[in-house]
Amino acid sequence: MASESIPDGHTVTKRLQSELMQLMMSSTPGISAFPVSDSNILLWAGTIEGPSDTYYAGLKFKISIDFPANYPYTAPTVKFISPMWHPNVDMSGNICLDILKEKWSAVYNVQSILLSLQSLLGEPNNSSPLNAQAAQLYDSNPEEYKRLLMERYQEIDA
Fold this sequence. Notes:
Ubiquitin Conjugating Enzyme; four-stranded antiparallel β-sheet; 4 helices; ATP binding; UBQ-conjugating_enzyme/RWD; ubl conjugation pathway; transferase; ATP-binding
């Protein structure tokens, strides 16, 4: 393989440090993420606030972002740590989002991932559900959807 296609650890660290600075400087409302520890820049914890005018308005969720050694050429593994009720999130927190799978590109970064997840909360892809019951209720029974969401929801420390 060409050496350009597999970054060394220093290159990945430099990219993630740059993304962290970009994220901190942008102050995009409703999203944040930071490395869990100074000793491991490949594991981050993030927070996503639900967008207004959605079932998730006013709610905050924790996620984990686990970067592979060949990031950004391979997508990070992103999961909801907070319990989640959503058509595209299973009960273990796994997320079905095309940019984290087959549509991944090295041009994406932590900020674009967080914004995509925030957008997904208000605009689920019901044609590709990981939670079939949530997908069915999302359109057919808003009251029951919201009830089940709030039943699973747990407040997090900001």
